[in-house]
Amino acid sequence: MKNVLHIKSGLQGEHSYSIQLGDAIIKRLQETYPGIRIRTRDLVREGFPHLQTETVNAFFTPEESRTPEQNDAIRNSERAIRELFEADILVIGVPMYNFNIPSQLKAWIDHIARAGITFRYGEHGPEGLVKNKKVYLALATGGIYTEGPNQELDFIPAYLKAVLGFMGMTDIEIIRAEGTAMPTTKAVAVEKALKTVDI
Ligand SMILES: Cc1cc2nc3c(=O)[nH]c(=O)nc-3n(C[C@H](O)[C@H](O)[C@H](O)COP(=O)(O)O)c2cc1C
């Protein structure tokens, strides 16, 4: 049985295009793999903290030497990593805010990128330890970034491929709802994006 981790980071609840797209991808997965288990984390509704000095200090303290306060400081990280390893498939909703990913999603990434757990430095340089995952990125952008003058501002796919790939997640499919802020494209953005999904 497959486990799916669905990460949401859109600010506008059910009106968020990235959430609508992520939900539609989940529906496809359920049709293709009956009985799959879905775990959903809405980083905006549930909240996800930024890294603090205490968090990073606790990361770098060996497990057996951590104080109760340090264990507390890494609770979010430990849970997020456990959920990550348990998943076979990740669906990550990614809205573009000010040309980048939401800070909540960045915070989640900061908590899962842990030396010795999700990546390590070996003889041949860094090695990702989160292997055999399929990742679907449900990316929503107000403008169009796959063609035209905005192409050079399309940082999100490169960043997410780099950071997830660094942790070993290299099988990444990007599904894009584009032009969600434009009157001519917003009505069909999700429908058009779903035509590109290979599930
Ligand atoms: C705070 C904020 C910043 C945004 N910045 C950008 C931007 O830099 N470029 C862009 O094309 N659209 C931008 N938009 C539009 C969003 O990308 C668009 O609404 C998209 O659908 C967001 O995903 P969501 O619907 O899941 O929230 C922004 C929207 C908000 C609310």
TrEMBL record:
**Is-annotated flag, keyword NAD?**
yes
InterPro entries (alphabetical): Flavodoxin_fold, Flavoprotein-like_sf, FMN-dep_NADH:Q_OxRdtase_AzoR1, NADH:quinone_OxRdtase_FMN_depd
Reactions it catalyzes: 2 a quinone + NADH + H(+) = 2 a 1,4-benzosemiquinone + NAD(+); N,N-dimethyl-1,4-phenylenediamine + anthranilate + 2 NAD(+) = 2-(4-dimethylaminophenyl)diazenylbenzoate + 2 NADH + 2 H(+)
Q: Where is the Flavodoxin-like fold domain positioned along the sequence? A: 2-196
Textual note on the cofactor = Binds 1 FMN per subunit.
SUPFAM superfamilies under this entry? Flavoproteins (SSF52218)
Keywords of the record, alphabetical order, are: Flavoprotein, FMN, NAD, Oxidoreductase
Q: Which cofactor does it need?
A: FMN
GO MF annotation: an example: FMN binding
Query: Which EC class does it fall in?
Result: oxidoreductase
The entry's FMN-binding residues are 16-18, 96-99
Domain of life (superkingdom) = Bacteria
Pfam families, A to Z: Flavodoxin_2 (PF02525)
Q: Which Gene3D superfamilies match?
A: 3.40.50.360
- Please state the Enzyme Commission number of this protein: 1.6.5.-, 1.7.1.17
What is known about what this protein does? Also exhibits azoreductase activity. Catalyzes the reductive cleavage of the azo bond in aromatic azo compounds to the corresponding amines. Quinone reductase that provides resistance to thiol-specific stress caused by electrophilic quinones.
Assigned protein family = Belongs to the azoreductase type 1 family.
Q: How does it assemble?
A: Homodimer.
Q: What PANTHER family does this protein map onto?
A: FMN-DEPENDENT NADH-AZOREDUCTASE 1, FMN-DEPENDENT NADH:QUINONE OXIDOREDUCTASE
Quote the protein name from its UniProt record: FMN dependent NADH:quinone oxidoreductase
Q: Which organism is it from?
A: Sinomicrobium weinanense
Give the classification, highest ranks: Bacteria, Pseudomonadati, Bacteroidota, Flavobacteriia, Flavobacteriales
Q: Which gene encodes it?
A: azoR
